[in-house]
Amino acid sequence: MNPLTATVPWTDSPFFEQMLLEKQLSPRDEALVRAFHRDGYVVLDDVLTPEQCATIRDEVEPLYRPDEPEGPRSRYRVQDAYGECPSVRALAADSRMLDFLRLLYEREPFPFQTLNFKYGTQQPAHSDTQHFSSVPFGFMAGVWVALEDTTHENGPLLYYPGSHRIPDVDLLGIDPSRFIECQQQYLKHLDTQFERVEFTAKQGQALIWAARLWHGGAAITKEGATRHSQVTHYYFRDCIYFAPQNSAFSLGRFKLKDTFDISTGEQIPHRYNELDLEVADAAEDVTALRPAKA
């Protein structure tokens, strides 16, 4: 393992320019990598054909629950449809996406969650690392694919370029009931420091973002307008995978996530770089880890 990427993705490294020069990438790849380094996201064109988009929409449609306003499977969202829908799994495991994530992170990626949407989420801006994260930090990414054209009427994705450089939120020592209040404090300042961008994507386009990028869903201004899309979340191997809101990660205690590679069904072990780990102590579902004994 490259010691320069043992604690941070190379696209976040202070040595980014030197490392980029050494890679001698094609002009296209260099431009995309520079955009990801600068903005925390990058857009790829023509990831899916119209026919592939239609297949995903058709396979997922029976899984929506019109009578459920919220939840993992509701009127507008289906979590982990990959188990029932081959086309969802195929997109999550797309080799072109995995190759590009390898380039961006210099680690082996694997998809661990899918979310399919019928409508825009209208969700306030947030960082994914509020919900799931990794140690070393930063080794998580999201990919959003438009399954139909998005407009300013049907609730497009919104994001704040450059906001991936905001440090992770650690609520240790703060009452968990104040989480929303803490998030609102961040939102209060986002618009003063970063540009707010709405992504009016064309069908088949993909947006890849760093886990720390603050993003959400804009308002739906045309009642009933659909905005079909698929999100896949990716982790990278040789990390600890945990839920931040239930962890004291600054003290080395984690609410560990049982994490599976969608493409293979394999459970991925918690490791720290090349170090195997074992449970040192577990209490109230929070775990401390230590190097595994030989």
Question: Any overview of this molecule?
Answer:
The chain has 294 residues and is of the alpha+beta class. It has a single domain (3-291), classed as q2cbj1_9rhob like domain (Jelly Rolls). 22% of the residues lie in helices and 24% in strands. The protein has helices at 16-23, 27-39, 50-60, 86-92, 95-105, 179-193, and strands at 41-44, 77-79, 109-117, 133-135, 140-146, 157-159, 197-199, 206-210, 215-217, 229-236, 240-242, 253-254, 271-272, 275-283, 286-291. Strand 13 (271-272) and strand 14 (275-283) form a beta hairpin.
Helix content: 10-25%
Succession of helices and strands = HHEHEHHEEEEHEEEEEEEEE
* Oligomeric nature of the chains: single chain
Report the top-level CATH class: Mainly Beta
CATH topology: Jelly Rolls
Q: Helix- and strand-based class?
A: alpha+beta
Q: Please give the alpha-carbon distance between the first and last residues.
A: 20 Å
Could you report the average pLDDT, rounded to the nearest whole number?
93
| Number of structural domains | 1
- The CATH superfamily is identified as q2cbj1_9rhob like domain
Shape: globular
> What's the CATH architecture?
Sandwich
Number of strands: 15
Discrete helix count: 6
